[in-house]
Structure formats: structure tokens, C-alpha cells
Amino acid sequence: MTLDRLGIGAPARIKSVTWDLIAPEEAKRLRALGVDVDSELTVSHRGIFGGGDPIAITLGNMTIALRRSHARAIAVEAL
């Protein structure tokens, strides 16, 4: 399952990230924020306009907003 399909509040672990689908500068920023394999997260909010963009995830003590296209590049497993 990809992150864009994960339900709000459901805990998950990142299994893989297809970095080729994300622009290099954006991928670097996401890695710096801790978005990488084995990180645990939850979806905390989805935008109501434009097909649900952005998606807010809670990763550790941070809340990070992601584009839906970025979330599609992140494979997760529910915990």
C-alpha cells in the first residue's frame, strides 16, 4: 500500500521509497526530515481541496505536509 491510501490515524512503517518519482531537491528535504525506510508515521490530516492535497503526516514529534504525488512514491505497511 502507498502512503496516499493510508487511513487517517492509522500507524504505519515505511517499507520503501521510490526516490526517482520525487525531484532531487525535494527528496533531499524529505530525507533530512526523516522520511526513509523503517520510519514510523501516521496520517494526521488530508486537505479538502484538489484531491486531498496536502497530506499531513506525523513522524516522531513533527508534522510534515506532503504532496499526494510524493505520498504515492512511499510504500508503507500498517502496524
Automatic annotation (TrEMBL):
Boundaries of every Ferrous iron transporter FeoA-like domain copy: 1-78
Naturally occurring in which organism (per UniProt): Qipengyuania algicida
Source organism phylogeny: Bacteria, Pseudomonadati, Pseudomonadota, Alphaproteobacteria, Sphingomonadales
Molecular function terms from GO: transition metal ion binding
Domain of life: Bacteria
Keyword terms, alphabetized: Iron
Listed name of the protein: Ferrous iron transport protein A
